[in-house]
Amino acid sequence: MEVVIVGTVAFDDLKTPFGEREKALGGSATFASLACSLFSKASIVSIVGEDFPKQHLDFLESKGVDTKGIVVKKGSKTFHWKGEYGSDLNSAKTLQTDLNVLLEFKPVLSEKQRESDFLFLGNIDPDLQLDVLSQMKKRPGLVVADTMNLWIGIKRDKVLEVIKKVDVVLMNDAEARQLFGTKSLVESMKKIIELDSKIAIIKQGEYGSVLFMDGKYFSCPGYPLEDIQDPTGAGDSFGGTLIGYLAKTKDFSEANIRKAIVYASAVASFNVEGFSVERLKEISLADVEARFNEFRDFVKF
Amino acid sequence: MEVVIVGTVAFDDLKTPFGEREKALGGSATFASLACSLFSKASIVSIVGEDFPKQHLDFLESKGVDTKGIVVKKGSKTFHWKGEYGSDLNSAKTLQTDLNVLLEFKPVLSEKQRESDFLFLGNIDPDLQLDVLSQMKKRPGLVVADTMNLWIGIKRDKVLEVIKKVDVVLMNDAEARQLFGTKSLVESMKKIIELDSKIAIIKQGEYGSVLFMDGKYFSCPGYPLEDIQDPTGAGDSFGGTLIGYLAKTKDFSEANIRKAIVYASAVASFNVEGFSVERLKEISLADVEARFNEFRDFVKF
Known about the structure:
The structure is a homodimer.
Chain A: E1 3-6, E2 10-16, E3 19-26, H1 28-36, E4 42-49, H2 54-62, E5 65-66, E6 70-73, E7 80-85, E8 92-98, H3 111-114, E9 118-121, H4 126-135, E10 142-146, H5 149-154, H6 156-165, E11 168-172, H7 173-180, H8 185-194, E12 199-203, E13 208-213, E14 216-221, H9 234-249, H10 254-271, H11 278-282, H12 285-299
Parallel strand pairs in A: 1-4, 1-9, 2-7, 4-5, 4-6, 9-10, 10-11, 11-12
Antiparallel strand pairs in A: 2-3, 7-8, 12-13, 13-14
Helix pairs in contact in A: 1-9, 4-6, 7-8, 9-10, 10-12
């Protein structure tokens, strides 16, 4: 089943304790669609400038990603983000953001995309996320959205509306506390459930992620990595895998969502082993399956 | 099998977002011995002042803790700690420390204690920890030690010596990074193993704890608590349970140490549900078993 992925396609300038890259392929839709395509066909809705190399589009297509929905805007430049990670790799310091073509981003879904049963709303303005949702001919079977501290800070009400309307909003621990003013993880998850959301998933960076659903709690550990080269895109590849796996299996039971989270953690852990999409470029489903099985051993007692 | 527990017995003045207590029973040996006694007989080596109420000793004895090794020092006052936790309950702010009788603490083990097969060295000066170890007639079957950032800062070499000489040194994530200058959890665990230690356990507060042993990695989640009343003693009750369970089962295999860690996490999670020893006072082994089984459900996929 095809998954529609709305988000950014970007150039990233990255600096981490392990090295640096300039104008590397990035953006939430890029990471999410590559991760998704390990399990299900992904179809991107995004925008780039005319400086965006055709080779990147060809690369995405070679991975089975449908890029027809990426508008190439004449006379504009691609969204450009420059960030640096210190020895604490959990949070990036943004050095420069050139929104460029993103200022004109008004996602318009194709007829076919409006009929999709699986929709991933990458980390963009919640107003745009709601607009995309309103374009769907019917409510998709599963909608997963991502968000971030920026939107929680300036558009809190809209973020809450997104949580109400979609099935899963991905947040990390700190974002959930910021959004709800809660003190504990459990309190945050209860707030999400109260908002008419059946599924609460909270990401905890290197510590893993947790799920609260149907009155049950699930904890997935972080994959024990010695070197994290570049955390950029980890959240996007987590989200892309989650929806990709669920679109493939079409089973939204709590038990299967646990599996989806473990797959998502596995792919995200590969993502951070290299800069940009370097690792996502290389890995196969067999690699992901192997890591999935490692997670089983990590938690056995 | 009896476990010898060397550490502090203290008065704590506590303030958390959930309330406050004055002159509450505290100290590393107190928490560790109460936790241990859920599984194995504990025998404390510690010191208090003449202001220490007999009712506290009676309480410990009623829980099966041998308090004969707690020296009551005439003319001296009990060690007194005053601390406050903010909304981030992970770290305490020390407001006042009156070492009092602790300045004279030179632990001397009884003949019987020197023959024990299980020794827990609470979070005290690493020089004292090494001195206690040298008093043992033979190397105990299992020695677990606790430490903290203070000792890593001022007596780093001694802490490293303790790690070399004992079986398990309990540290949290930040302490391990401080001790070894490492960037990642995996790197820290490798450093511990390199120091001729077979077992590396790192505590991660609310996120749980991890084990690296025999080339295998184990991750135990944190118990999902909505309200943490008072985190004081969580690390001590974790350590006390760990050694208490291993003394009872006498099985130091990697598989059994995983179980010990889950029991330790369960007891520590009860500990923080109340102030001081309020919850440890109430719980039974059946309560702990029930929570142990909950952990199985938390990680199943």
